[in-house]
Design brief:
The structure is a single chain. The protein is mainly alpha-helical. The chain contains eleven helices and no strands. The longest helix is centred in the middle third of the chain and has 30 residues. The chain is globular.
């Protein structure tokens, strides 16, 4: 995608690339959610061949991966759609915002960093009930069958405000995560070969470029903000306030809580 009106010219590519990245990333996101949340994973013989269960029992660190890649995929559609629209909105909105601020003579640094900060904060607030419901749904010990029931359970247990519990940690991570993601996306835009507008495969090439940039940006942002994901997910589990959650994690794990689930 070139500079200027790229976002306006290729909205379909933005959403398609974000959806493709979300679908490919779902099992790894699930494994990461298990690790960051500290959920206990024990494979059941009835769900897996006995030799797999025995093998994983001897290497417990593999259990989250087998669980994450195995059905049932609770919350799959909601998770993918939530990730897709969020990433598309942030990248699309950031490009539009960058163009706007540059046209007003704002410095390049501010034009690059301010739009993702504004858009991602809004996305966090809108998506938070869905994020909390999907994270809690991944608990292997949960008997909640789907997103609707997960949302109902949160509401009945903690009220309307409970649906947005954890927003503080979510917003705190938006600054480094999406500013880093936009920086990485812009970097890949500079180094990837330009798409030939006369090529018969130009639409496919644009989609591939968008998927590469979205995936690389997502990985970079996620690795940087793992500690805040751990804090947010623990807030979901315990319903404790932000600083009480940090204190509880530190008391339980020491500073190792900062890297919990990062390997996944």
């Amino acid at each position: 995608m070139g500079s200027g009106s790229a976002a306006r010219d290729y909205p379909f590519e933005y959403f398609s690339a974000s959806t493709l990245a979300a679908v490919l990333n779902y099992p790894l996101w699930r494994a990461s959610a298990l690790g960051q949340s500290g959920f206990r994973v024990v494979l059941q013989v009835r769900n897996h061949a006995p030799f797999i269960t025995n093998f994983v029992s001897s290497v417990p660190s593999l259990a989250p991966y087998f669980y994450a890649f195995s059905p049932p995929y609770k919350g799959l559609a909601a998770t993918v759609m939530g990730m897709s629209w969020a990433r598309a909105a942030i990248f699309f909105g950031s490009d539009i915002g960058k163009e706007f601020f540059e046209s007003k003579g704002v410095s390049p640094a501010v034009a690059t960093l301010l739009p993702p900060l504004i858009v991602s904060t809004g996305v966090q607030c809108v998506n938070m009930p869905l994020v909390r419901a999907t994270i809690l749904l991944q608990n292997p010990e949960s008997t909640v069958p789907n997103i609707r029931e997960s949302l109902k359970q949160i509401y009945s247990s903690h009220g309307l405000g409970g649906l947005w519990h954890g927003t503080s940690a979510g917003i705190l991570k938006t600054v480094p995560k999406y500013c880093t993601a936009i920086f990485v996306k812009d970097y890949f835009e500079r180094i990837l070969p330009a798409v030939d507008p006369e090529s018969p495969s130009k639409d496919r090439d644009k989609l591939i470029h968008s998927a590469i940039k979205s995936s690389a940006a997502g990985v970079a942002g996620a690795a940087l903000t793992n500690p805040l994901d751990v804090i947010r997910n623990e807030m979901f589990k315990t319903n404790l306030p932000l600083f009480d959650t940090i204190r509880s994690l530190h008391n339980e794990l020491g500073w190792n809580f900062l890297v919990r689930g990062m390997s996944k």
